[in-house]
Specification:
The chain is built from three helices and two strands, in the order H-H-H-E-E. By secondary structure, it is mainly α. Strand 1 and strand 2 form a beta hairpin. Keywords: DNA-binding, Transcription, Transcription regulation.
């Protein structure tokens, strides 16, 4: 079952927080919150929004980069990868 785009992190859940965040971010991408080739919120913004550690945010982003949903541009941020690329 895929997380809802507006879900919160459940620290008591069996799924680790970074996996929960990766699912939430992916759901938000699919909903259209962020357009292809546009930046998602910064790590600091995601830390504040979800109340988790920066390392957890980085790990979630790494999962989505590995899955091909996001790409990182050094010194610029993390961007939504266009479908089919």
């Amino acid at each position: 079952m895929e997380p809802e785009p507006d879900a919160r992190i459940d620290h008591g859940a069996p799924l680790p927080p970074y996996r929960q965040l990766a699912g939430i971010l992916l759901a938000r991408i699919r909903r259209g919150d962020w357009q292809p080739n546009r930046a998602i919120p910064s790590e600091a913004q995601l830390v504040g929004e979800y109340g988790i550690a920066r390392a957890t945010v980085r790990r979630a982003i790494a999962v989505l980069v590995d899955q091909g949903a996001l790409f990182v541009v050094p010194q610029r941020g993390t961007f939504v990868k266009p479908e089919g690329e």
